[in-house]
Design brief:
Elements: H1 2-16, H2 33-48, H3 52-85, H4 91-122, H5 125-149
């Protein structure tokens, strides 16, 4: 069952990495949302090569999308945390956690589709595609920074 927990954790990192909100880090310090967003914007600007006009139109939508993604994941994170706090976790509870994660992924895909349709109205197709590449880069850097902190 440990590989399932690792997979669930890894899926959560990918999903939540770029949409973190004010919360306590493991070291007890508050997560700096503004610094995180600034880094997010820096990477996207660099990778996608947005013009200033495109950036002004894009980032409010992007931040709205990441907020929605964060919110749908919040409830599942709480549910998993509650289950994991218990002892002798049952197969039914593991199944519930996996099912909840899959349901969230489905909802998340719908949100991303909705916002990518909006992005296509303000950005050329190449730049819309590069957004996903920039997000993959951000996730990779986030995971690396988490590994480096340990």
């Amino acid at each position: 069952m440990k590989p399932i927990l690792f997979l669930l954790t890894l899926m959560s990192i990918f999903s939540l990495g770029v949409s973190a909100q004010n919360q306590l880090r493991r070291d007890g310090q508050k997560f700096d949302v503004e610094a995180f967003r600034a880094e997010q914007e820096k990477i996207i600007l660099q990778e996608v090569e947005l013009t200033p006009e495109e950036a002004r139109a894009f980032f409010p939508l992007y931040h709205e999308m990441t907020q929605k993604r964060f919110e749908i994941n919040r409830e599942v994170r709480r549910e998993i945390k509650t289950i994991m706090a218990g002892k002798n976790i049952t197969d039914a509870q593991y199944t519930k956690m996996v099912d909840s994660q899959l349901e969230v992924r489905s909802k998340e895909i719908e949100i991303v589709k909705e916002y990518y349709a909006k992005f296509k109205k303000i950005l050329p197709p190449e730049k819309v595609f590069k957004i996903s590449l920039a997000e993959m880069k951000m996730n990779k850097e986030l995971i690396k920074s988490q590994v480096d902190r340990k």
